[in-house]
């Protein structure tokens, strides 16, 4: 007499459910120029995504509650002359975001309280002088410092 063996799994009664369309972001032209870094960053107020842009690098910053179809004329953060490779929100201030680019610079941006209504072109701080592109950014949560890495 053979017995069926059923493996005990804590996941056997778990079923997935698709996200509703009103909770998604649609028609965002995500950048194809991603490196080994993040193409998006999220905090309690905003979601930021690196997008394709002519004439340099840009990224979108959207309030979390603004879901649905995103218009092509949505204001972007654009100030780099090369493609943006990484973005990172500050863990201490939800309105501060840093971006690293192929143009060998790091820029710190301050997002207005309600989000972007016009394109943001002027950073709060621009860190220049890197010899190679800035591929990864990390704002240290405990020390309130920022690190960035270049290619070798």
Automatic annotation (TrEMBL):
Keywords: Repeat, WD repeat. This is Coronin. The lineage of its organism: Eukaryota, Metazoa, Chordata, Craniata, Vertebrata. The gene is CORO1A. Residues 4-68 form the DUF1899 domain. WD repeats lie at residues 77-119. It comes from the Eukaryota. GO terms for molecular function: actin filament binding. InterPro entries: Coronin, DUF1899, WD40/YVTN_repeat-like_dom_sf, WD40_repeat_CS, WD40_repeat_dom_sf, WD40_rpt. GO terms for biological process: actin filament organization; cell migration. Belongs to the WD repeat coronin family. It comes from Oncorhynchus tshawytscha (Chinook salmon). PANTHER family: CORONIN (PTHR10856), CORONIN-1A (PTHR10856:SF18).
């Amino acid at each position: 007499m053979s017995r069926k063996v059923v493996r005990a799994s804590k996941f056997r009664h778990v079923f997935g459910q698709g996200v509703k369309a009103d909770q998604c972001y649609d028609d965002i032209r995500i950048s194809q120029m991603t490196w080994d870094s993040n193409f998006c960053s999220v905090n309690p107020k905003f979601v930021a995504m690196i997008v394709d842009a002519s004439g340099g690098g840009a990224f979108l910053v959207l309030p979390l509650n603004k879901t649905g179809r995103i218009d092509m004329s949505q204001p972007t953060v654009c100030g780099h002359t090369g493609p943006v490779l990484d973005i990172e929100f500050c863990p201490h201030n939800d309105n501060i975001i840093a971006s690293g680019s192929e143009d060998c610079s790091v820029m710190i941006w301050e997002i207005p309280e309600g989000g972007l209504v016009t394109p943001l072109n002027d950073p709060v701080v621009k860190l220049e002088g890197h010899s190679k592109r800035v591929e990864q950014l990390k704002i240290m949560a405990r020390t309130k410092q920022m690190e960035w890495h270049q290619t070798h």
